[in-house]
Design goal:
Length: 206
């Protein structure tokens, strides 16, 4: 565990905690808005190629009920660049692209459970947590604990992917300049990930 922590520290470098709670909230909001969707998209691409997903969609061989905005995103396949966290989760779960986590979908994993599905659950829970979090509740301790837990998840996801994609995306986005007020406004408009999803009853088998 110590070696893993040292490796992550080298990959991420020094992390400076923002001074104000608004800045801390905005930094975490930037992760939810900019980093975690890319992580979920990368996991989805690893489990199913965009071209194969496009074929399934055009054949109406999709098990999930899509919202209007999700239908628009699926129409852009094989381009997944704008896929939301929730849409990636829906496809991974209901297209049976991975085994169900031991805690079952929609629940918080035990700290000992570190399979890829468990970490997907943690990313979804973290997303919802930051969406509903009030800025004044983002203390320095909370901020540091969130970042530490996230780094461990990204390291494990990169191990699953056999590449450095997630940590590199994190570094690139978190080192870029952001407008804190803009991020907080955008975060306020973000909907929580819906764990109570519905199946597509009109699905046509290919």
């Amino acid at each position: 565990m110590k070696r893993i922590s040292q490796f992550i520290s080298r990959k991420l470098g020094t992390r400076n905690t923002p001074v104000t709670f608004e800045e801390r909230h905005a930094k975490l909001g930037c992760i939810v808005l900019r980093v975690l969707p890319k992580v979920m998209q990368t996991i989805l691409k690893e489990c199913m190629s965009p071209t194969c997903l496009q074929v399934k969609y055009r054949l109406h061989d999709i098990r999930i009920a899509l919202k209007e905005n999700e239908t628009s995103l699926m129409e852009k396949l094989p381009n997944m660049d704008d896929f939301t966290i929730e849409l990636c989760y829906k496809i991974l779960r209901y297209e049976n692209l991975m085994l169900e986590p031991s805690c079952k979908w929609g629940n918080a994993p035990n700290h000992k459970d570190i399979d890829i599905a468990d970490d997907i659950q943690r990313l979804l829970i973290a997303t919802n947590e930051i969406i509903v979090k009030k800025s004044e509740d983002v203390s320095e301790i909370y901020y540091e604990e969130f970042q530490t837990n996230l780094h461990a998840i990204l390291y494990r996801v990169d191990t699953f992917l056999r590449q450095d994609t997630c940590l590199n995306v994190y570094n690139t986005i978190c080192r870029s300049e952001i407008q804190f007020s803009d991020i907080l406004q955008e975060l306020a408009l973000l909907q929580q990930v819906d764990f109570t999803l519905t199946m597509n009853t009109t699905r046509v088998a290919s």
